[in-house]
Amino acid sequence: MSADYDVLVIGAGPGGYIAAIRAGQLGMKVACVEGNPYDDPKGEPRLGGTCLNVGCIPSKALLASSEEFEKISHHAEDHGISVTGAKMDVAKMIARKDSIVDKMTGGIKFLFKKNKVTLVNGWASFVGKTDAGVQVKVTGAKGEEVITAKNVIIATGSKARHLPGVPVDNDMICDNEGALKFGAVPKKLGVIGAGVIGLELGSVWRRLGSDVTVLEAMPQFLAAADEGVAKEMQKIFTKQGLKFNLGVKIEEVKTTKKQVTVKYKDADGKDQQMVCDKLIVSVGRIPNTDGLNLEAIGLKTNERGQIDVDAHCQTLTAGVYAIGDVIRGAMLAHKAEEEGVMVAEILAGQAGHCNYDTVPWVIYTSPEVAWVGKTEQQLKAEGRQYKAGQFPFMANGRALGQGDSQGFVKVLADATTDEVLGVHIINSHASDLIAEAVMAMEFKAASEDIGRICHAHPSLSEVVKEAALACDKRQLNM
């Protein structure tokens, strides 16, 4: 008996569909299983996973729409443009978001056909192993079938973490899915969790008129970010109108048909209460391994619900790999994509590669926050000697011309070798600017290397150059 496929990918999110496409490009016989319809009108599986359907892509569409509304309503006058009575059609904004999602998910189907990837509709669970390979049962609308593959890649992603005793109905109390499809702008919006999702979605509805209050359990704001960046962003968000309560403990959440009441203890242990029209629960995500029947192939999840893998994403069971949100590391779509490509290339006999030290982080607020590598607090904790260079966008002509001069670029480099150890950016184009830093760190560049590269003038990228030069106190425009 021979295997049906060389590679079977479970899950068609960013990691899964990219792994399937790359394996197809490398000449392997590939299938990808996906069962989640994500409210598809025909009830068919929607490709792209959380990212394309109810995460990265739709949230960025709403962020863009809300930013345009805020610019027209509050900042057009700075350019000599008079605008009165600007209104937001929420239904049209949501429809635009949905059309972008439809286009993107449909594009993956085209890419599957182009690269000869077979799409299998249904939900996968492991059956066991045979001499031919790994057996996987797929349960779909047409019944069950058992597929045998030489290699299996688990790419089932993650789902929103919910709080005990706080039932998410995606109407009054919402996770990321419900928060992307409000029918109207809530007058008062509560957000539990000051992480990436909470800040992005809170920003969307704040710009459209919501009074937004964010409750965060951690005593520090944006604890994962560089301390200087976190401090500056808290100031910016507060100035924009977001309200933050840090170090809180949620005690009770009650819902009526018209409002949600959250009782909590503040950082001083005092009883407080927040009443809002809608509540977004944004307290992280957990690996999605339900129903996989991992035990059938000798696997189990660890204490964090993750599947343990080695440096090349292979599990303890030969021929079975796992990538993305179901394993250790950052829950980021681009990290999953890199792992998917790495695994596919390893299976083809190539030297697959994924450098976790150069995976960038981005928060798509306005301004954006992006960073790669070490923070100052991490370097201090390690006892590593470093030098820092920082340059503000308010000293950059292009930024001033665009009316977008908030933030700065900070470059951290080794005190002795000058190797770039981390780069941190606050700017509305930070997600694009960080790519230069990722490239520099991937090739072990020194801060001097960035400083000696010719950057176009006038451009925002000049701030990256100036920050690199500032590591040796030789910035030119300040």
UniProtKB/TrEMBL annotation:
<dbReference type="InterPro" id="IPR012999">
    <property type="entry name" value="Pyr_OxRdtase_I_AS"/>
</dbReference>
<protein>
    <recommendedName>
        <fullName>Dihydrolipoyl dehydrogenase</fullName>
        <ecNumber>1.8.1.4</ecNumber>
    </recommendedName>
</protein>
<dbReference type="Pfam" id="PF07992">
    <property type="entry name" value="Pyr_redox_2"/>
</dbReference>
<comment type="similarity">
    <text>Belongs to the class-I pyridine nucleotide-disulfide oxidoreductase family.</text>
</comment>
<dbReference type="InterPro" id="IPR006258">
    <property type="entry name" value="Lipoamide_DH"/>
</dbReference>
<keyword id="KW-0520">NAD</keyword>
<feature type="domain" description="Pyridine nucleotide-disulphide oxidoreductase dimerisation">
    <location>
        <begin position="359"/>
        <end position="468"/>
    </location>
</feature>
<keyword id="KW-0285">Flavoprotein</keyword>
<dbReference type="Pfam" id="PF02852">
    <property type="entry name" value="Pyr_redox_dim"/>
</dbReference>
<keyword id="KW-0274">FAD</keyword>
<keyword id="KW-0676">Redox-active center</keyword>
<dbReference type="InterPro" id="IPR036188">
    <property type="entry name" value="FAD/NAD-bd_sf"/>
</dbReference>
<dbReference type="InterPro" id="IPR004099">
    <property type="entry name" value="Pyr_nucl-diS_OxRdtase_dimer"/>
</dbReference>
<dbReference type="InterPro" id="IPR016156">
    <property type="entry name" value="FAD/NAD-linked_Rdtase_dimer_sf"/>
</dbReference>
<keyword id="KW-1015">Disulfide bond</keyword>
<dbReference type="InterPro" id="IPR023753">
    <property type="entry name" value="FAD/NAD-binding_dom"/>
</dbReference>
<keyword id="KW-0963">Cytoplasm</keyword>
<feature type="domain" description="FAD/NAD(P)-binding">
    <location>
        <begin position="5"/>
        <end position="340"/>
    </location>
</feature>
<dbReference type="InterPro" id="IPR050151">
    <property type="entry name" value="Class-I_Pyr_Nuc-Dis_Oxidored"/>
</dbReference>
<dbReference type="InterPro" id="IPR001100">
    <property type="entry name" value="Pyr_nuc-diS_OxRdtase"/>
</dbReference>
<keyword id="KW-0560">Oxidoreductase</keyword>
